[in-house]
Design a protein that fits this description.
Strand 9, helix 9 (221-233) and strand 10 form a beta-alpha-beta unit. Helix 1 (26-39) packs across helix 2 (55-64) and helix 1 packs across helix 15. This protein has helices at residues 26-39, 55-64, 80-88, 96-102, 104-108, 122-125, 162-170, 185-192, 221-233, 254-261, 282-286, 297-301, 339-349, 351-365, 372-386; strands at residues 3-4, 14-19, 44-49, 73-75, 112-115, 132-135, 156-159, 179-181, 207-211, 239-242, 269-271, 289-292, 308-311, 331-333. With 395 residues, the protein is α/β, with parallel strands linked by helices. The chain has an eight-stranded parallel sheet. Strands 11-10-9-12-13-14 form a six-stranded parallel sheet. It has 15 helices and 14 strands.
């Protein structure tokens, strides 16, 4: 079990890999901690978590990367009153910043803090000045929130590919010497993991992954999810996996979850509202076609080029909007009743999108992802040693 921060002495060379309770972030940053422990013995990586339920997942990543001695785990507990308030209003995410504020002194003793999200930038306001703040974004999507202004508060940002590097440079979120391009870290982990995707259904129908985002202002979920499920229930050409972004139901009640689960159709429609399989690439690997809106998981799906259809629930003028660049990888439809016809012809017209997907993946996730954690770890070690990095030759 992780030990409370109050019972630990902090090594001044400690590099904290901070996880604020969201398991989907583990696959994007934990591999780097494992590699850093192996290639930079003068640094002391450790996992800092706000939820002990993440520890088994962290240990699994360590096993994949051959870590012999498990990295130390420090547990940051939220204030009791904040935890009680969060349970009453079903908002577990509401006390992230409060937890960081409570433990700012121990975090200030680190040499660096590595985070896959941006709540950690609040540490500067709480008095944390010693450690370098390092950002490894969780995914490489296109929506504007992935390029918010808090990125500029990090001392070093490690992006997967040149697409994000160019956009962050253009928007003034990163600067030369303070960013690196690593390749897609999660992909490296998935390639090391044993086993092939297993069949999700016991039939020969192609399977569609419906992967809606959680952002109410952008997602197709709130307007069209029930209609989409009904459309699939009324046909026999496709199976459907409904696996929205894990954050969509993180604070949902059991009653709300049960309402959606009752829409499952055994042998045809599977509904997953946030299990382990919704974050470990089970569905993006095993499904044949993709139906989505703005989730960055589409880039994970098209690592192996396959037909995609995108649902425009809001009538967006998307063609020249960088926030919807991924919509060029498949047909865009405007209503649930258009989904089945689009998916039916998707395989026939896929030839016109294959090369678009290949080029988009290379730009977003890097042309070589086999050594992504090694590149990220080398960037962290070099930055902490020298204070800046050489600018990548092809940003």
């Amino acid at each position: 079990m992780p030990r409370s921060e109050r019972s630990r002495h902090v090594d001044p060379a400690s590099v904290a890999f901070l996880f604020l309770g969201e398991p989907q972030h583990v696959f994007h940053a934990a591999p780097v901690a494992c590699v850093l422990a192996q290639v930079a013995p003068h640094l002391r990586p450790l996992f800092v978590v706000t939820d002990p339920a993440l520890v088994p997942l962290l240990r699994e990543v360590e096993a994949i990367y051959g870590v012999i001695e498990p990295l130390p785990v420090m547990l940051l507990e939220p204030p009791i009153w904040a935890r009680l308030l969060g349970s009453l209003v079903h908002r577990r995410r509401s006390y992230k910043a409060l937890t960081l504020k409570r433990h700012w002194r121990v975090l200030d003793a680190m040499v660096a803090i590595v985070a896959a999200e941006r709540t950690s930038t609040a540490l500067r306001a709480f008095g944390v000045t010693r450690p370098r703040l390092i950002h490894i974004p969780h995914g490489a999507g296109d929506r504007q929130q992935g390029f918010d202004s808090r990125i500029a508060l990090f001392d070093l940002t490690i992006v997967a590919g040149r697409k994000d590097a160019r956009r962050m440079l253009d928007e003034g979120l990163i600067r030369p010497g303070h960013y690196a391009i690593s390749g897609y870290i999660k992909r490296d982990l998935l390639q090391r993991r044993a086993g092939l995707p297993h069949a999700l259904f016991d039939n020969a129908r192609p399977t569609v992954l419906y992967n809606a985002h959680f952002d109410r202002d952008l997602s197709s979920w709130h307007r069209h999810a029930r209609e989409i499920i009904a459309v699939f229930a009324a046909q026999d050409r496709f199976n459907l996996v409904v696996a929205p972004h894990v954050k969509l139901f993180v604070d949902a009640s059991q009653r709300e979850r049960a309402r959606w689960q009752r829409l499952e159709v055994p042998g045809k429609i599977l509904i997953d509202l946030g299990s382990r399989r919704s974050i470990d690439a089970t569905y993006t690997s095993a499904c044949d076609l993709y139906l989505g809106d703005v989730s960055s998981q589409v880039y994970e799906f098209v690592l192996q080029p396959r037909p995609c259809v995108f649902l425009d629930s809001r009538g967006v003028c998307w063609q020249d909007d960088p926030n919807y660049a991924h919509w060029r990888m498949g047909e865009v439809v405007a209503a649930p009743e258009a989904v089945i016809p689009a998916l039916t012809r998707a395989s026939e017209v896929f030839a016109q999108y294959r090369e678009v997907q290949v080029q988009a993946v290379a730009a977003a996730l890097g042309p070589d992802m086999n050594q992504a954690p090694q590149r990220a770890a080398a960037a962290i070690a070099g930055f902490l040693r020298d204070g800046r990095l050489p600018e990548p030759c092809d940003p």
